[in-house]
Specification:
Layout (H helix, E strand, L loop, with lengths): L90 H20 L1 E2 L4 E2 L15 H15 L9 H12 L2 E2 L4 E2 L15 H18 L2 H11 L28 E4 H18 L2 H18 L7 E5 L4 E5 L1 H18 L2 H20 L8 H15 L6 H19 E2 L4 E2 L17 H15 L10
Antiparallel strand pairs: 1-2, 3-4, 5-6, 6-7, 8-9
Helix pairs in contact: 1-12, 2-3, 2-4, 2-12, 4-5, 4-6, 5-6, 6-7, 6-8, 7-8, 8-9, 8-10, 10-12, 11-12
């Protein structure tokens, strides 16, 4: 993701000059997203994740900053995260349901812009600041709304809100470039360079909702988004590990191959192959997955953030890159039945749990990155119960800490460092991106096990 940036003061346009965390964004949260691809930053400060794009997970969170202890052994809190594993709501699941609804109510009360279908980037925008969020925070608010709508007992109460979110996303569609722009085009704004990772995650949300609703217009839009993604593929044959996907369609793009774009594109391609049977999607799903494994694999469940145009590797590890590779392998297995992908997903899920959960590295990661990690681990759980207890335990412990340490009881909003993780910073205002990530975590903890196949 891009280096930390402050929010832009005018409604326009293109994103940061390097992918990585920025004001809130992770693809970070805040004004800019954290792109894991940025040069390693001072470990004492967390990148601003709000970037305008979902960013490549790059960025400035030094690995040393990821060592904050969580809350004790997994076994000690097994009861915390026992959400409806059997399909029957438990007291713990009901508690998470209430917390998800509390967080969603706060999101709508303080950050939603009635009459527009859009959100502000963060609480109390400064004079001259962009009136609307970048597209990545809206996508995460959409995912949060979908997750809340799927809560046991919701009874379709939020179905209208879900439709409103998807209508809002269409306000970012740039017909001329055939992609979702990072900021709304005219008449709402000046548009912005389209980020490939933003478009991939929007495509994933479209196909996920299609699976839940059967609305074929959403599938059509997901296919439309996918037409943009192959433009990211690097075609230089004379480099080590040819291929990989660029981060943004702009002449300032710094990445030849970004882990987040490439693995998220694999997930979307696998979904589309599963839904349509078109061989080209399977080809892209395999190609992108295999590239990330070959070029960026750093041990099971761990992937470097990306390769820069000069050939250097941005080695930062981000939790969402672990999650998207688990999800891509799980979806490729689900779509093809091939055992190899199940074996790889199983090994990566075990490695991710070991590194991020048992290694107590979650709290300083951006909350929205962790939401993506756990959504994909639950997706994997829908096809294999190999690591379920540890996943739910770790997810519950982490979510408990976020609720206890990061929530402002006066507003119901969550505060983090500017990069979207860690202990609340006094000068960091709540962000739509971060709030949406917290809601996703709480809602997924309340989901029934039979719904996990639609978690990512």
């Amino acid at each position: 993701m891009p280096e930390p940036r402050t929010p832009v003061s005018r409604p326009s346009t293109s994103r940061p000059s390097t992918p990585g965390p920025t004001t809130p964004g992770p693809g970070p949260a805040g004004a800019a997203r954290p792109t894991g691809l940025a040069r390693p930053a001072d470990p004492s400060r967390s990148p601003d994740l709000s970037r305008r794009a979902f960013a490549v997970g790059l960025g400035g969170l030094g690995l040393a900053a990821l060592a904050a202890p969580l809350l004790g052994p997994l076994s000690a809190v097994r009861a915390v995260a026992s959400p409806a594993a059997s399909g029957v709501a438990s007291p713990a699941a009901d508690r998470w349901r209430r917390r998800a609804l509390d967080g969603y109510a706060a999101l709508q009360r303080h950050l939603y812009l009635p009459g527009t279908g859009l959100y502000s980037e963060g609480l109390d925008p400064a004079p001259g600041e962009n009136p609307y969020s970048f597209v990545w925070p809206l996508r995460e608010a959409t995912a949060a709304t979908v997750d809340v709508d799927r809560l046991p007992g919701s009874g379709g109460r939020f179905t209208g809100d879900v439709a409103d979110r998807f209508a809002g996303l269409e306000r970012y569609w740039d017909t001329g470039r055939g992609a979702y722009a990072s900021y709304p085009p005219a008449p709402l704004g000046g548009g912005g360079d389209p980020f490939f990772d933003d478009n991939a995650v929007i495509g994933l949300e479209l196909v996920r909702r299609y699976r839940m609703s059967g609305d074929r217009e959403l599938l059509r839009r997901a296919q439309r988004v996918f037409e943009f993604l192959p433009r990211a593929w690097d075609t230089d044959p004379d480099v080590e590990h040819p291929g990989g996907m660029h981060w943004v369609e702009a002449d300032w793009n710094p990445y030849r191959g970004a882990a987040n774009v490439t693995s998220l594109a694999s997930e979307l391609a696998a979904h589309l192959y599963e839904e349509t049977g078109e061989a080209r999607y399977l080809d892209w799903g395999r190609r992108t997955y295999e590239w990330v494994r070959a070029a960026l694999h750093r041990g099971y469940g761990r992937y470097a953030n990306g390769i820069l145009l000069d050939g250097s590797v941005e080695e930062t590890l981000w939790s969402y890159n672990s999650g998207s590779m688990v999800g891509a392998a799980a979806l490729l297995h689900r779509a093809t039945g091939e055992r190899r992908y199940l074996d790889l997903a199983t090994a990566d899920a075990a490695g991710a749990v070991d590194h991020w959960v048992r290694g107590d590295r979650l709290y300083d990661q951006p909350v929205v990155f962790n939401a993506i990690l756990f959504a994909n681990l639950l997706l994997f759980e829908s096809i294999s119960a190999a690591h379920g207890a540890d996943v739910l335990d770790g997810m519950g412990r982490y979510a408990e800490r976020v609720w206890a340490e990061n929530r402002d009881p006066a507003t119901g909003l969550f505060r983090f460092q500017s990069g979207g993780g860690g202990a609340p910073a006094p000068d960091a205002r709540p962000q739509t991106l971060h709030q949406a990530g917290a809601i996703q975590l709480f809602a997924l903890l309340a989901w029934r096990r039979q719904d996990y196949g639609d978690a990512a």
